[in-house]
Amino acid sequence: MPETILIADDHESSLSALEGLLSLEGFEVVTAPDGEEALSAFHRGQPDLLLLDVKMPRLSGFEVCRRIKNDADTRLIPIILITAMTATEDRLAGIQAGADDFLTKPVDREQLIARVKSLLKQKAYTDELERAEAVLFALARSIEGKDPHTEGHCERLAEMSGRLGEFIGLDGPEVQALRRAGVVHDIGKVAVPDHVLLKPGPLTAEERALVERHPVVGEGICAPLKSFQLVLPIIRHHHEKLNGTGYPDGLKGNAIPITARVLQVVDVYDALIAARPYKRAMTPVEALALMEEEVRRGWWDPEVFAVFVEMLGCESVKVRGMTKAAGAD
Fold first, then answer.
1. Who wins on pLDDT, 325 or 15?
2. What's the CA gap between 42 and 21, in Å, rounded?
3. For 243, what's the count of Cα atoms within 13 Å in the CB-facing half-sphere?
4. CA-CA distance, 93 to 91, in Å (whole number)?
5. Residue 256 burial (CB < 10 Å; 0-12/13-18/19+)?
6. 241: exposed, middle or buried (Cβ count in 10 Å: 0-12, 13-18, 19+)
7. Binning pLDDT at 50, 70 and 90, where does residue 77 land?
8. Average per-residue pLDDT in the chain?
9. Which of 94, 254, 273, 295 is the most exposed place for a label (fewest CB within 10 A)?
């Protein structure tokens, strides 16, 4: 099936020339005479690449590009802006809008075809990567779905750990890794038999050993994806403890990656405030008080925990004579 290219240009002669060149190369071409029509055509049938003149009525090529690139669902679709030969300011504005490439007028046929094919090849790699990620996310959610009491845990963990990462000041790739890890952190439980995974009572030593292998298994499942390289340490180490009593590697202190320390705090909190067959749901104040006690035992990072409490809008939580958290019940 040929790739679809959307061309937007208010000059009919330019539009026809570009359409003819790309059609001869075997592409499916959709055209629009201005920016608003381009956005409408884009949403009707999402193309594989856009070719936009920067100066168009109603909406400029810059604005069309900006709107598409600001949407997480469409920002990876390549966009080429067509600019005037000497318009340096157009290129700067295009970079700020998120454009992937530029062509200057008059458009050279060979450059046009080479750049279009190059960007479509990159998009094919990106699409393949997204499909692989989607499979992993679906597998992770199927594992979560086995236990009705953990429904929504992955989404909550992805959202809250990402927020905590931002609150702490981690960079964009680390925050993105936290969001991905929130979904797939327990994917290794696919190797744990259901009768062990869903057992309501205490685990035997053999059963516990099986469960404690899941971070290593999960790391192995996700390792082939290059986009998950920052996710792997979170998957492997989110059950470590600061004092070295965690698993699978018994890491201590700062040897545990900061992203894993962030996710484990959110993971523990979410588990404590959720009901299980063997326990009631704690209130936020109770959960944070218990976690503060565990921080003193050397389990969780005290600085990460303090920022987490602050993020939740809490002034302080004390184990005895607890000060009620702001907004907590």
1. 15
2. 20
3. 9
4. 5
5. buried
6. buried
7. very high
8. 86
9. 254
Grouping H, G, I as helix, E, B as strand and the rest as coil, residue 109 is helix
Give me the amino acid identity at 310: E
CA 117 to chain centre: 27
Question: Pairing state of beta strands 79-83 and 101-104?
Answer: parallel
The enclosing H or E element of 240 equals none
Q: In whole angstroms, what is the distance from residue 160 CA to residue 309 CA?
A: 12
CB atoms within 10 A of CB 6: 26
The residues near 86 (Cβ < 8 Å, ≥ 6 apart) are: none
Report whether 112 contacts 82 (CB < 8 A).
Answer: no
Contacts for 35 with CB less than 8 Å, ≥ 6 apart: 8, 52, 56, 57, 58, 59, 60, 61, 63, 64
Question: Which of 19, 73, 79 has its CA nearest to residue 48?
Answer: 79
Q: Which domains does the chain have, with CATH numbers?
A: 4-126 (3.40.50.2300), 146-311 (1.10.3210.10)
